[in-house]
């Protein structure tokens, strides 16, 4: 017969700028057999508006390629004192199991997050942008599978696959992210002091929403390509420990294949780099 444990709790927050919030949480752990555990959890959480979102005021003027007096466009960006905290509901189910006398560990997770009352800056009138709570919502769900294999005392293999999907109805500040990530590789640690790892990461491309400001100012700033392509990273690390593991010299190569890519349309182009270091420990 399996064993289970139920834990519950409530967090009560007092904040000077918003009404008090109550965040309940609950988790159920169930172990049907030794070395196999399931965990079901759920909770609510809140994010109060920041000082920037509540009281920020900025007046921006842009010179247009037009004759006076039409060559000046002024926009006022203003916070709001009437914002409610963002709210998120999170539910997850986790499994962990050990096999072959702890030589293989499997982990799986599925999750669901619901975000409401997202704080956004939206144009309320020509030349006026103000902070407000969006009436839309975002439902984010997905899962991850992971394994770790102890091939022998000095060599370990690891790998995982993650997937997420975002469904949303926000009119502005739409979120996005890669739907699929795959990671895998090997780690070694020898008695001689040598250690190293070879890891490969694959990230599937996606399209990211671009702020409307780029479209409004396209005559001054070219709007970036919203598409981020797939990319693959090969990372290699090698090290040597000495002085009873009190010191280590190591070198690592990030993006060894020099797969030049961007992680976001507004981000920098990422290439390869090599790092080396000396680590000393003092008791």
- In percent, how helical is the residue content? under 10%
The helix-strand sequence is EEEHEEEEEEEEEEEHEEEE
Low-confidence residue ranges = none
Percent of sequence in beta strands: over 45%
Please provide the count of β strands.
18
Q: What is the typical, i.e. mean, pLDDT?
A: 86
Spatial strand order of the main sheet: 1-2-3-6-7-10-11-12-13-16-17-18
Instruction: Tell me the major beta sheet.
Output: 12 strands, antiparallel
Shape label: globular
Structural class, judged by helices and strands? mainly beta
Tell me the distance between the termini: 47 Å
Supply the number of helical segments. Answer: 2
Rg over alpha carbons: 25 Å
Structure characterization notes:
This protein has a domain of 108 residues. It is 4% helix and 63% strand. It has two helices and 18 strands. It has a twelve-stranded antiparallel β-sheet, with no helix packed on it. A four-stranded mixed β-sheet has the order 4-5-9-8. Strands 14-15 form a two-stranded antiparallel ribbon. The longest helix has 5 residues.
């Amino acid at each position: 017969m399996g064993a289970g444990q139920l834990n519950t709790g409530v967090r009560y927050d007092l904040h000077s700028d918003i009404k008090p919030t109550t965040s309940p949480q609950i988790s159920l752990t169930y172990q049907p057999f030794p070395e196999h555990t399931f965990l079901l959890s759920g909770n609510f959480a809140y994010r109060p508006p920041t000082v920037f979102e509540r009281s920020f005021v900025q007046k921006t003027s842009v010179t247009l390629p037009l004759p006076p007096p039409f060559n000046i466009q002024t926009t006022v960006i203003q916070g709001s004192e009437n914002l409610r905290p963002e709210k998120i509901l999170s539910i997850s189910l986790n499994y962990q199991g050990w096999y072959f006398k702890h030589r293989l560990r499997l982990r799986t997770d599925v999750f669901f997050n619901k975000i409401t009352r997202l704080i956004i800056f939206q144009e309320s009138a020509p030349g006026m942008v103000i902070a407000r709570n969006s009436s839309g919502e975002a439902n984010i769900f997905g899962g991850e599978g992971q394994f770790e294999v102890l091939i022998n005392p000095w060599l370990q293999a690891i790998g995982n696959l993650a997937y997420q999907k975002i469904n949303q109805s926000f009119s502005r500040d739409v979120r996005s992210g890669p739907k699929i990530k795959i990671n895998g590789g090997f780690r070694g640690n020898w008695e001689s002091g040598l250690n190293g790892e070879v890891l490969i990461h694959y990230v599937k491309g996606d399209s990211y929403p671009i702020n409307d400001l780029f479209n409004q100012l396209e005559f001054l700033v070219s709007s970036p390509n919203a598409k981020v392509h797939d990319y693959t990273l090969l990372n290699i690390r090698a090290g040597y420990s000495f002085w009873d593991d009190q010191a280590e010299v190591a070198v690592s190569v990030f993006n060894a294949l020099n797969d030049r890519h961007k992680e976001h349309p507004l981000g920098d182009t990422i290439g390869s780099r090599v790092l080396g270091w000396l680590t000393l420990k003092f008791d």
